[in-house]
Amino acid sequence: MKADDVMGVVNDLLTLAKLVVEAVQSGDAKKVEDVLPKTARTTLAKAAADARAKHKFG
Amino acid sequence: MRWLWAILFWLLASCGGSVSTGRKALYVAAEALVATDSAIAEKYTDAAAKALEESASADAYHQRMLPWDNAEQSVRLSRAALFAAQSALDTFEDGGSQARWQCTVHDLILAFKELQLSLEDILPLHDISTALTALEAFATCEEP
Question: Fewer CB within 10 Å, N- or C-terminus of chain B?
Answer without folding.
Answer: C
